[in-house]
Write a structure and sequence with these properties.
299 residues, 5-stranded antiparallel β-sheet, 44% helix, 3-stranded antiparallel β-sheet
């Protein structure tokens, strides 16, 4: 820890960097809050093989979410690379679980999703017109490919679902997942019949553990952002609970549900179940296969 303190002090030109408390959360193995002369800061320290991509992606995600002026995130300060270690420094925010500000978060998330859509209509030169992101990110510890793509269905199939399917088959030895994917992929296009998908800036991993509130409003964190279909962000909010009726009510007041939403929700949940299968195994294997079987049968 002494070496990390010295690195942070040198990079931020600080004289006081005192470890305050170690924090749990996320996939990063070493999270600390420090007291400094510029206030309390939060540091994610990662020495894993994908740590650089994970924290660089999170830094860029936070910068883009903050610049949207739609939803509060921890203010990114700096990312530091020292030998095999990456350190992400942000402001420290004291928060608790999301309770009182459910509706406000739903509204803020919709505002985030609408921002680029409004630019496409009003000031196209400043809008993002493709799906992807400026850097690759990680969802958990698994890197995801954010290369820009003009076609959402192609992006989602080739750069999100297919890599997870291939990883699951390789790691588990399960061949059914590949068979189901070969039957599902050609049918995915029909789930978007009549829907004009345009790129929205997304959080990318918005489960309840990545949202909270302060005394004054909601905050989200640990993003894996990219530009994609706004419905993608909603899918994981329903998987593990924590988001209430007011959250969805306020969201859909600004962005109404489109026809076919429930089936596409399952398609977007599939990515997260596959990702959890590849991280944790266990029950996520059968849950992933169950969704794939249902989508194949219903499409």
């Amino acid at each position: 820890m002494a070496e990390v303190r010295e690195i942070i002090a040198a990079e931020l030109k600080l004289t006081k960097v005192e470890p305050w408390k170690r924090l749990k959360g996320g996939c990063s193995s070493n999270n600390w809050a420090f007291k400094t002369e510029i206030g309390e800061i939060f540091a994610k320290i990662d020495s894993d093989k994908h740590g650089r991509d994970l924290l660089l992606g999170e830094m860029k995600s936070l910068e883009m979410l903050q610049s949207s002026e739609s939803v509060r995130v921890p203010r990114p300060i700096k990312i530091i690379f020292s030998q095999n270690t990456a350190i992400l420094i942000t402001e420290y925010i004291k928060f608790k679980g999301l309770e009182v500000f459910q509706g406000e978060l739903g509204q803020h998330l919709a505002m985030l999703h609408l921002r680029n859509l409004q630019l496409l209509k009003e000031n196209a030169d400043q809008a993002v017109k493709q799906f992807g992101f400026y850097v690759n990110t990680c969802c958990g510890k698994i890197p995801v490919d954010n290369q820009w793509n003009e076609d959402w269905i192609n992006f989602y199939c080739k750069q999100r679902l297919k890599p997870q399917v291939e990883m699951a088959a390789k790691m588990s030895g399960n061949r059914e997942v590949e068979t189901l994917w070969s039957r599902l992929e050609p049918k995915i296009k029909q789930l978007f019949h009549g829907v004009n998908v345009q790129p929205s800036l997304l959080h990318g991993d918005l489960w309840s553990g990545n949202a909270g509130e302060t005394e004054t409003g909601p905050v989200i964190f640990d993003p894996a952002s990219f530009y994609g279909h706004h419905e993608f962000d909603l899918a994981i909010t329903r998987m593990f609970g924590g988001f209430g009726r007011e959250f969805y009510k306020r969201y859909h007041q600004l962005i109404p549900r489109e026809v076919g939403f429930e089936e596409r929700k399952s398609l977007y949940e599939l990515f997260h179940y596959l990702n959890h299968w590849n991280h944790f195994g266990g029950a996520y294997e059968e849950q992933s296969l169950k969704i794939m079987r249902r989508l194949v049968a219903n499409s």
